[in-house]
Each structure stands twice: as structure tokens, then as C-alpha cells.
Amino acid sequence: MEQVIVLGTGNAQALNCYNTCFALKEGNEYLLVDTGGGNGILKQLNNQNIPLNQIHHIFITHEHTDHILGIPWMIRFIGALMNQNKYDGNLYVYCHSDLVNTIRTIVELIVQKKFYKFDDRMFLVPLEDGDTKEILGNQITFFDIKSAKAKQYGFSLIQPNSDKITFTGDEPYRNAIQEYVKESTWLFHEAFCLYSQREIFKPYEKYHSTVKDACQLAEELKIPNLLLWHTEDKNILSRKTLYMEEGKQYYSGNLFIPNDGEIINLINQ
Hints:
This protein has helices spanning about 40-45, 65-70, 70-85, 100-110, 180, 200, 210-220, 240-245, and strands at about 5-10, 20-25, 30-35, 55-60, 90-95, 120-125, 130-135, 140-145, 155-160, 165, 185-190, 225-230, 255, 265. With about 270 residues, the chain is α/β, with parallel strands linked by helices.
């Protein structure tokens, strides 16, 4: 994958930015990872000039509203393009096997039948822990992050140049997923708030980590590139500066604190 296009960086209650989701670009095609909490996903994609007819692969990590509720809108709009003969090929939606019926039910309840084409040109692809798929020329292994809340999957992606990109979902790293995270070139990790503000935002009660925690982890695992998101948004204008200041105290690698809409090159950092 050449780039990560950051579509959203906020947690479930964010009002000043979109919920955390992103697209990985390979050539002219995209893998969309999560869809945020509603039709805002369409605006975010439009802002980044990502055409819907160049998205043939979507991965949904888990069932929480801020990750899944954009998928009916993606189905609705891609279905319309299919009906207009403006979408070539099929759409594949990947998720853990327990989530397949949830997505199907949500879509069938609220989207007109003429727009969803399950088992025809739209396929819900069930995943089991450790499954590997080739997507856009990259080998992607999906894994259970061992969530303390809803069942959730992350992934490790091996680039053609052997770089490894690992996304651990929206909960902290656990030793149980070490085999997937070790030797990563990039780690995409959540950071709910600053460690210095942990008494304000209570991240540990929500099964989240702080900037300090995530940076200490990446330093310990010797990961050269760390990207943090899924944060609070109470001080969005200063978030990047404040998070960077705290993070660089504990992490010596390349630290990225993106805002919505940022594009980060994944090659030759």
C-alpha cells in the first residue's frame, strides 16, 4: 500500500472530527477500513477525492456504532452506481464471522432492496482468527484482538517490499497478539487521550490507552513508525502539538498524530 488516507480520527463521542476510519491506497484502488458512524463517510471520501467506484474492498472491525453505521450508506451509494452501470466488478466486505449477519440485517432493514446485491455483486466475506487474504496485491492477515468488549479484528499487512503494517483496532495492544505485531514497520494504534489527562477522560475504564502508553509500547517493540488516532477531541486545534510533545518523551521513532484528511506515505519513511 502506498498511502494511508486518514478519513477520521475521533472516538465514538467525537463532535469536532469524524470517527476513526481510513483508506489504504494501492494504485487507483482503495481498501476502506471501517466507515465511521453514518453518512459522514461519504463526505470524508468526497473531500479526499476517493471515488466510490474505486472502492471494491471494505473491512469492518467490529459492531460498535462509530465503526459500522457508515456501511449502509456505502452499500446504498455503491448499489446506485451498479444500477447505473458506473461500477465495474464486485464489492467485498470483510468482517469476523459473527458480524456477517449483523451487517446483512442492518442493510436489509434500512436500505431499499434495489440497492443491495448480496450474494450477487456484493459479498460479505466471513473471517476467522488468522485468516489471510490477498487484497490489492497485498497479503493481509486478520486477527482477533482479544477485545474486552465486542469481538473485534485487526490486521497485519505485508507489503511487496516486506514492510509490515499492523492495525490493532480501537483497544490497546495485548500480549496475546504479539505474533501479529512484532517486527512491524508501522503500527496504527489508538490513544484516547494524554496520559496527563487520564483523570479527566478515564481511558482505562473504557479499555483504551493514552499517548504515553502507546508510545512506550512502540518503543519497547522497536517499531519505527507509530500512528495514533481514535482520540478525544475537546482541544482539536492543539491536539497534534500536545500529543506529539507527550509522545516524543517516550518514543524515539517517527510519530504521526494525524488530523482528519491527512495523507501519509507508507513507503520510504
